[in-house]
Structures are given as structure tokens and as C-alpha cells.
TrEMBL record:
Matching Gene3D superfamilies: Winged helix-like DNA-binding domain superfamily/Winged helix DNA-binding domain (1.10.10.10)
Protein name: Winged helix-turn-helix domain-containing protein
Coiled-coil region list: none
UniProt-listed InterPro entries: ArsR-like_HTH, WH-like_DNA-bd_sf, WH_DNA-bd_sf
Pfam families with a match to the protein in the record: HTH_20
UniProt organism field: Candidatus Sysuiplasma superficiale
Length: 112
């Protein structure tokens, strides 16, 4: 995995709002959309990406009064860092579990 994907997710306005909102309390896409002004379609797209790359996870699923399943998401990330050092991009994620994941650009510095 390249650090570029993670740096894009961490700096995307909607993704950052979602990550911030689900740091301590699980929330549904509908709650996130209503509370943080994120269009519902964009909210679902960002949730799928954040979940795909392991930045959030579905904590629970509940049935609504209409019998529809609603997923509630929580962040797996405690802290996130983006570094630009010596011409290379590096991302470090400190996870809630206590683990650390690092992603570094391994491309040639000459850009070739």
C-alpha cells in the first residue's frame, strides 16, 4: 500500500469529518450525513473507502423501526501522521489496538 492513498483519505474533508466523528462513539451514515453536512451518497462512498483501508470498522448493526439494518462505525485509528521527509512521503497510523502501521513511498528519488 502506498502512503498516497492514506494521505488522500486523511486530508479529504468528508473522510476527515467522518474519522473525527467516529473516534469515540459509533455512528451511522445517516447520523454522519445529518450532523456533519456530508451528502449521503458521499458519506457512503467515504465510509466504504475508510473501511476498505482499515481506518474504520463496523462496530454493530441495528434494526431500525422500519426493519432496515443500520451499520454503526467506529475509528480504528488513534493518531495519524503524514510526513514529507527528504523528498518522500510517509504515513504512520497509531491504531486503537496499540499497533502501528507505516506506509512509505519506496519510489526512486529521481522520480524515475
Amino acid at each position: 500500500m502506498t502512503p498516497f492513498i492514506y494521505s488522500q483519505l486523511l486530508t479529504d474533508e468528508y473522510a476527515a469529518r467522518i474519522l473525527t466523528a467516529v473516534m469515540k462513539v459509533p455512528r451511522s451514515a445517516q447520523q454522519l450525513s445529518a450532523s456533519y453536512g456530508i451528502p449521503i451518497a458521499a458519506c457512503y462512498r467515504r465510509i466504504r473507502l475508510l473501511e476498505k483501508y482499515g481506518l474504520i470498522e463496523c462496530r454493530e448493526r441495528r434494526l431500525s423501526q422500519q426493519g432496515k439494518r443500520i451499520s454503526y462505525y467506529i475509528s480504528t485509528v488513534k493518531n495519524a501522521y503524514i510526513f514529507f521527509e527528504g523528498g518522500r512521503l510517509r504515513v504512520r497510523l497509531d491504531l486503537v489496538s496499540g499497533a502501528t502501521r507505516e506506509f512509505e513511498d519506496k519510489s526512486d528519488e529521481s522520480g524515475v
